[in-house]
Design brief:
single chain; alpha/beta; Rossmann fold; four-stranded mixed β-sheet; three-stranded parallel β-sheet; 11 helices; 7 strands
Amino acid sequence: MCVHAHPDDESSKGAATMARYVDEGAEVLVVSCTGGERGDILNPALKDRPEIDADIPAIRREEMARAQAILGIDHEWLGYVDSGLPEGDPLPPLPDGCFALVPVEEAAGRLVELVRKYRPHVMTTYDENGGYPHPDHIMCHKVAVAAFEAAGDPDRYPEAGEPWQPQKLYYDVSWTRERVEIFDRALSECGIESPYAEMLEKWEERVGPRRPPKVTTKIYCADQFERRDAALMAHATQVDPDGWFFKVPLDIQRRVFPWEQFELARSLVDTELPEDDLFAGIRASADSGVTS
């Protein structure tokens, strides 16, 4: 079970890993906490089109359905409204009724119900900083951690179904400095202009006081990179097809960085770090196949 803040997050964070486990026969579920209603139109070709602006919630749902089909995953909406990304100094208040203002216990109860329904062995989400400090990402972290800790307790949310305890919780680790430096160097060596120089120059400013992620687990998923990119492109309103995310040719990516990375945050099974499998320590004890 991969818990994400908005539709498109699942395709930019851990999508190739999900596709790999689908290929291996696992059941993979994405939970989108919000509908992404307040997301900006990031594709220049789709900006300022009234038909899109008029019904962005429906379009985001259609995009999610296309990405779901490409990855071969199952999907559930948690049912909350996008908080948007407030900007300014001072920051404006979050809009009434948005996900980031919902009590954590309430949202966690909805997620506990899904955990108990689908019975995942592994959950993934973001770290305490949300991966980046979007209010929905930070809230997603809080809700996922709370649900992981509550789902197996029969005294918590008794109305949400029979208790089920996931065995491991991971945080997605995407654009680490190491990864960006490797891509920047590989592009330069191949005579391709790198879009990452400015990002590296301003890395400390970009990251701020957030702690660096601890990579404990690398999943080899180079064979699924093409599907990852196709799933992300399915979120057409949210992605610039000429943007920096797609600047490294897949053959270079497969050669220099054929993994996706995670941080093991909780484990109720014995495992040895570093890992190369989210199910390390679980496979032998799973009663009926592998479910994620």
